[in-house]
Specification:
- It is a single chain.
- With about 260 residues, the chain is of the alpha/beta class.
- The chain has two domains: about 120 residues, Rossmann fold (3-Layer(aba) Sandwich); about 110 residues, Winged helix-like DNA-binding domain superfamily/Winged helix DNA-binding domain (Arc Repressor Mutant, subunit A).
- It contains eleven helices and five strands.
- It has a five-stranded parallel sheet with strand order 2-1-3-4-5, sandwiched between helices.
- The radius of gyration is 20 Å and the shape is elongated.
- The termini are far apart.
Length: about 260
Amino acid sequence: MEPIKVIIVDDNAELRNMVTKYLGQQPDVVVVGQAANGEEALYLLAEKNPDVMLLDIIMPKMDGYTLLEQMGHINLPQLPHVIALTALGRDDFISRAIELGVSYYMVKPFDFAVLYQRVLELAGRGQAKPDVPQNIGLPATPHSLDERIAGLFLTIGIPAHIKGYQFLREAVKMVMEHPEMINRITKELYPGVARRFDTTSSKVERAIRHAIEVAWNRGRIEVMNQIFGPNVCSLNDKPSNGEFVALMADKLTLERSA
């Protein structure tokens, strides 16, 4: 019987290598490739045609949700079964992943032996005993500020592959560090972000505006009101760049001080 072909998509290289080593020691599984983000994974999917994909959600360039949305647009003999491996454990993240076709959702840190069993189940191989010990320690997954921002962006519907994502994330972090900057958005905030990305203030402003418009066009107003408070957002009343950055910064500051 042919081994189960698996690819691992995660921006944590240490985790990818650990999972590759563990699964590689099982007789019925072969890891045929690794990718650090969704863009790399699209090429890997077309090249390797795996049976199972292990997928992180928060990644640079293209996040896991966007990859799941894009998979239907590439020419594959069959779509792989997907197991999400992520630090995001909220119900809304899980629900969205399942809507996009994820079969299992495992929150880091996870049990390697359980992961192996899930791979077998998805491939229709039933139960098997791992050939190596399961008590392998995962690298730590602290909920950094970048991860919390990424989690909010994913919930709201701002994809990681657009330029405004990076600019908006940096703007939120700068306002959290220096709240007064929100009152000097054109004179200090945009130029500050622009310097960090070697671009211009006008490009920063336009890209952030585009990111907000993408979120509004996806129509997740109910989700935004759950995050920011009732009736803060409406489809016909998009916030300005400054208002949106302030909402994000206030939300994250409150979480940090809780």
